[in-house]
Amino acid sequence: MANPLEQFAVNPLVEIPVAGIDAHFTNSALFMVLAVIAATVFFTASMRGRALVPTRWQSMAEIGYEFIVDMVRDNVGPEGRKYFPFIFTLFMFILFGNLLGLIPYGFTFTSHIIVTFTMAIIVFIGVTLIGIARHGLHFFSFFVPPGVPAVMTPLLVPIEVVSYLSRPVSLSIRLFANMMSGHTMLKVFAGFIVPLGLLAGWAPLAVNVALTGFEFMVAFLQAYVFTVLTCLYLSDAIHLH
Q1: Is residue 132 part of a domain?
Q2: Strand 25-26 versus strand 12-14 pairing type
Q3: How far is CA 122 from each of CA 7, 11, 87, 109, rounded to the nearest angstrom?
Q4: Axis crossing angle, helix 167-200 with helix 113-135, rounded to the nearest 10
Q5: Which is nearest to 6 in space by CA: 29, 21, 27?
Q6: For the segment 17-47, what is each residue's pLDDT rounded down to a tens digit?
Q7: What is the tally of structural domains in the chain?
Q8: What's the Cα-to-Cα distance from 147 to each of 20, 128, 237, rounded to whole Å?
């Protein structure tokens, strides 16, 4: 039986050594590029006609657009409108990356902690800089919960700081762990189909079909969770609550 973790191996496709630094173009980088291309082609082709009565593809594009607009409005407020392009791009990049990984022989770059942590740290640094730019030193009052007695402040402030600094860790691990575990389960059950033969092989096959449907739901759900948490962090930075 093949190792179910082999599917997560990052392999160089084009070797690009730069001053002794490994800058190779890998299968992970390839599927990142494909995710960007797929999202761009989808929205460009869907909205090309701009029909009054939308086609199926145009309807899907409009639903995706309105979904993110509502998410930003409900979680950030009117002030979040200027950050919509970034949040929309982030959601679509993660969603298409998750979906491409479900294609046979595809690669799920969101199953790598280095990728998810990079996105999380960009979000973390970005919202922190936005908070400081909007509020100056008053931003640090975010770590002092309102209404807390002064005697409790020395205890609660370190807790709030640690909680704030752990945001990129929890954000990245949640996406990475869910995608990796789901694809590992698919590979494990797929490995039992052929060895069990025609008599018993249908059982793991049925489980794999069900898991595949479940993974499509997880692909969307994890993109949503990552993005909605980004909106909540942005709301904290803007409104300081």
Answers
A1: yes
A2: antiparallel
A3: 27, 25, 12, 17
A4: 150
A5: 27
A6: 777 777 889 999 999 999 999 999 999 888 7
A7: 1
A8: 55, 23, 19
Asked if residue 82 belongs to a domain, the reply is yes
What is the Rg, in whole angstroms, of the alpha carbon atoms belonging to the chain? Answer: 22
Residues ≥6 apart with Cβ < 8 Å to 196: 203, 204
Higher pLDDT, 132 or 195: 132
3 state SS of 234: helix
In three-state secondary structure terms, 18 is strand
pLDDT value for 1? 53
- The answer to whether the CB of 168 falls within 8 A of the CB of 211 is no
Residue given tokens 């995710």 in the structure block: 35
Could you tell me if residue 219 is inside a domain? Answer: yes
Question: Per the domain annotation, does 1 fall within a domain?
Answer: no
Q: Which two tokens stand for residue 2?
A: 């093949």
Do 232 and 127 touch, CB atoms closer than 8 A? no
Q: What 3-state DSSP class applies to 15?
A: coil
What is the pTM (predicted TM-score) of this model?
0.91
Name the residue among 92, 37, 36, 85 with its Cα closest to residue 64.
92
Asked if pLDDT for residue 169 goes beyond 90, the answer is yes
Q: In whole angstroms, what is the distance from residue 172 CA to residue 200 CA?
A: 38
Half-sphere exposure of 216 (CA within 13 A, CB side): 6
| Degrees, nearest 5: CA angle 45-29-226 | 70
